Amino acid sequence: MKIKFLILTFFICFSGVLFSQEEEVQFEANASKKKLGVNERLRVEFSMNKDGDNFVPPSFEGFRVLMGPNQSVSHSWVNGKRSFSKSYSYVLTPLSKGNFTIQQAKVEIEGNTYKTTPIKIEVTEAVNDPNAPPSADDIADDNLHLVAEVSNGSPYLNEAVSVVYKLYVSPSINVSNFLPKANPTYNNFWSQDIKVTRFQVENGLYEGKQYRYVVLKRVVLYPQKTGSLEIEPLSLDVTVDVPTNRRDVFGGRLFTQTNKTVTAGQRIIKVKPLPEAGKPAGFTGAVGQFDFDVITSKSDLKANESLTAKIQVTGKGNLKLFNLPKLTLPSSLEVYEPEHEENVSTNLSGMSGKISDNYTIVPQFKGKYPIPGVAFSYFDPKEEKYKTVTSQQSLINVYEGPSSAAVANEATRDSDAINKQPIATLGDQFRFIKLDTNLYAKEASVFFGSILYYILLLVPLLLIPIAILIGKKRAAMAGDVVGNRVRKANKLAKKYLSEAKRNLGNKEAFYESLERALHNYLRAKLKLVTSEFSKEKISELLLSKNVEKQGVDNFIALLKSCELARYSPSTTAEMQSDYNKAAEVISLIDKQFKS
């Protein structure tokens, strides 16, 4: 008897726990349509899932109340679970054309006040049949939305901005297919698409209502110009299945199909210039959060051996869009043009990774050579201030090899000063010298006066002007900073063109390497810095260099083709055609270009 009592008590407590679980309060407003003619009627319903008191409707500004409030209450039990619904409904008619908002309604539930989300209503011209149900196009318009979500509407110059394009679909309709109609172009931006590998359906809120959405496109932008910059809209042609009031023989609802064009709308980004106050003298446009260092591969070596000095920047920011500081070394060290390396990845938050310039250094003489500290400046948009990082000074010790003339003379002078001592003069100190000699004539050497003798005598004299010319040529090349940059960029363009050729068939890798080749070629020819890299600026400068308009148009069209091809299908034949066009356009501009 006692055991039965305990079991009964347990079930009573367990049932009490189940029924004590509180259901989340919901208070919503729904309109029969979002768009109607001035001669149509509108039904608005305010519903709650728990009983409430002191219901306060909105003022319905812009509408006349024809009926209401009509109250409805329902109770139901499903699988032992109780559900409750209570609603207030109104029938309205608009007073005039225009855009109106049905404001929030209020109700008190269990001592708390709850409010609905405002509803926007568009009233148009009178319709022919105001009592007709909404058409499939009207339903699709109200339940299908393409949105461009911008991470930052007011960035600094060269600060990363992400744009995510989402297609929101109401649960009341289905989307069977969609195709892009107009892809946005990002003029005055450096852009990088973040590939969407598959379309994944997720749930989310749009204007306070539950929707399903799909991420269609993601792109990271770095503004290259200040002021108000426009992002052109993305447009889609969408095939929509809209439910009807008809049903098939099995009771299933029938759908009608319609095509709609949706657009994300034009977006304006207001780009702020970098502050002039506190800008360092060596600032080259780096924006982000970075670490900086100068790393040498070795510190002790012999003459004519080589070492590598690496100027490296790591972190997060516009890594591909600024120049690294130059390494200044003693003139007695032979230094080759640096090799640029990039290991950069791009995601929605922007670029991250590292870039470096690798200098090959070959010392010619024995000695100790200092590598002075190098300063790197960047702008931190989070803290909104400039920062400068300076590397530590290091020393190269060349412990074996010939000494330069200057070093040798200095060493000789030091040695003489240390070892010079007074010498005592004695009468017999030169007795070891033999005074009587037996001299005889030595046979004349065959080498003296021979052809080889005169050749060896004249060759050094001939080499002197050649060495002077070579020295002047090397000095001119070392001082020609612009020319060195041009030669380096031309080599890079050839390198990337060959890389693009190897990537034929791989769309992403091909167009990325092809676009890099075109950009490096322009930097070499036009001596552009990153902030000037816009299509309008390119056209203006090429035309000013006597390049024909047809060649300029072909070059701009090729840049646009590279941008568009990243998110549109491309065949190997199209890639080969674009590669051939790039080679032809570069060759044509080289022939016509006048510096």
UniProtKB/TrEMBL annotation:
InterPro entries: BatD. The chain crosses the membrane at residues 451-470. Keywords: Membrane, Signal, Transmembrane, Transmembrane helix. Residues 1-20 form the signal peptide. The keyword Transmembrane applies. This is Protein BatD. It comes from Galbibacter orientalis DSM 19592.
